[in-house]
Amino acid sequence: MIRFTIMNGRGSRKCKNMLQDVNAGTSKWLGRDAVTLKQNWFFADKSIMGSLRAGSCKSKLNQTGQAEIQVVLVMALGVIMLTAAVISLVNQAKQNSAMAQKFTAIDFETTLNSALADGSVCYFVINSAGLNPLNFDATSVTPATPRYIPLPATTPLFASLTGGTLAGPPIAQIGQPISEVEKSLVIDSIQLAVTSCSGTTCQGGWLVDFDSTKLVSPLSPASVPVILTVDTSTSGQTTVTGCQGLAGGGGGAGPSTCPADMTLVGSPGLATSFCVHTSAQAAVPRLTAESNCVKINDSLAGRAHICSHNEWLQACNKAAGSLPGIGLIQEWTAEQAPGGSAWSGNVWTSGGSNCATWTPEPYGSSYAYRCCL
Predict the structure, then answer these.
(1) How far apart are CA 342 and CA 351, in angstroms?
(2) Mean pLDDT along residues 47-59
(3) What is the pLDDT of residues 148-194, one digit of tens each?
(4) Where is pLDDT greater, at 30 or 116?
(5) CATH architecture of the domain formed by 262-372
(6) What residue segments make up the domains of the chain, in order of their start?
(7) How far is CA 164 from CA 122, 125, 309, in A?
(8) DSSP SS3 for 115
(9) 89: number of CA atoms within 13 Å, CB side?
(10) Rounded to 5 degrees, what angle do the CA atoms 100, 343, 341 make?
(11) Mean per-residue pLDDT, 319-323
(12) CB neighbour list of residue 370: distance below 8 Å, 6 or more residues apart
C-alpha cells in the first residue's frame, strides 16, 4: 500500500505538471517557444490537453498501481499465513508440554499413594522430621479451620519403609523434580493437612505442590488422603500415634483374583492388595518396560503399571515363595532416582541381593521388570 501511494503521487505530479506547462504556454512538451504555443492554443488544447484529460496518464498509473498493490497484498497475505502457522505451532507445543506435565503429575500421585498406603512411611516422616507432637489442639480443627504442617526441605517422602527404620529411596523432596524426564515439575512445598478431628482420629492428607513459575498450565497439588490416630491428652498438643492411607484396610477396592500370569499380594478384595507378575519379564530399557506394562488392561483390575518400589518390596517380603527369583536380580521400579545419566537420568532398580536393596540405573540400561495391577 505504501509503494502504491508513492507511485500514484509521483504519477499524479507528472500529469499535473504537464497540464500546467501547456496552460502556461511553455514549450516543454511541444519543443516550441511560448509565443508560438499561445498562438496555437486552440490546437494544443485539442491535441494535448484533450489526450491528458482523456486519462492517458491515469490509465498508466492505474495499471502500475494495480500490479503493485496485487504484489503487496500477496506478500501481506503470505506474512499473515506464516504468522498464523507459527502461532499455531507454538500453541500446540504448549499444549503438548501441559499434557506431559499433567500425565507426569498423575503418575507421581499414583506412586505417592502406593508409598503412603500402609501408613508406615507417613508415621516415620512425621517423627523423623520432628513434627510430632503437632502443636495445635485437635478439638479446634474443622473443615473450615484446617491446620497445615509444612515438611522441612531436608526431609523427603520415601518410597517405602522396612523394619520401621530403613527408609527406601526418596520419591518427593522440596526443590527437586518429580521426574528426570519431565524436569519442569519441581516440588515447591510438602504439607500435612489436617482437616477434621473427632476423638482420637483426625483426617487429612499429604499435599505436594509444584513450582508455579515452571508450569505451562496450573496444576493442583498431588494429594494423598490419610487417617491419623492421635493422642490429645496433653492440652494444646496433638501427638500422632499412627498413620494410615485412607484406602488402607478397606474392603472391596482391591482385586480378588489376578490374571493367569500374575500373583495376588495381600488378601482378596482389600484396597491395599494388588497383582504382580509371577515371573520377572525379560530385561529391556526402562521406557520399553513402561510401555509393555500399560498395554496390559485387565477387565476387572484395570491397566497395569511398572511396580512401585513399595509394591515390589511388599511382593518381595510377603509373597517371595510364589514369585521365582524376586530379590535375586535387579528389576526396574517406578520411582525416579536423583542424578543424571544419558538423556533422561536414573531410575531405581530393586533387588540384586535381597529385598531391601535399591540402586539407581540409567534409563537406557536393560533390566528385568514386573508389572503390577
Answers:
(1) 23
(2) 46
(3) 999 999 999 888 777 667 777 788 899 988 876 678 889 999 999 99
(4) 116
(5) Roll (3.10)
(6) 2-82, 106-245, 262-372
(7) 11, 11, 16
(8) helix
(9) 6
(10) 125
(11) 74
(12) 276, 277, 280, 281, 306, 307, 312, 315, 323, 326, 331
CA distances from 49 to 21, 22, 30, 61 (A): 11, 8, 12, 18
Cell of 250: 478397606
Instruction: Please return the burial class of 274, using the count of CB atoms within 10 Å of its CB with bins 0-12, 13-18 and 19+.
Output: buried
CA gap 57, 306 in Å, rounded: 81
Cis peptide before 360 (omega within 30 of 0): no
Q: At what angle do helices 2-23 and 56-116 cross, to 10 degrees?
A: 170
Q: Which of 253 and 179 is assigned the larger pLDDT?
A: 179
Three cell numbers, residue 286: 526402562
Secondary structure element (H or E) that encloses residue 19, with its range? helix 2-23
Percent of the chain with pLDDT over 70: 73
- Alpha-carbon distance of 195 to 192, in angstroms, equals 10
- What cell does 47 get? 491535441
3-state secondary structure of 190: strand
Q: Quick one: 119 exposed, middle or buried, by C-beta within 10 A (0-12, 13-18, 19+)?
A: buried
Give, as one character, the DSSP assignment of residue 74: H
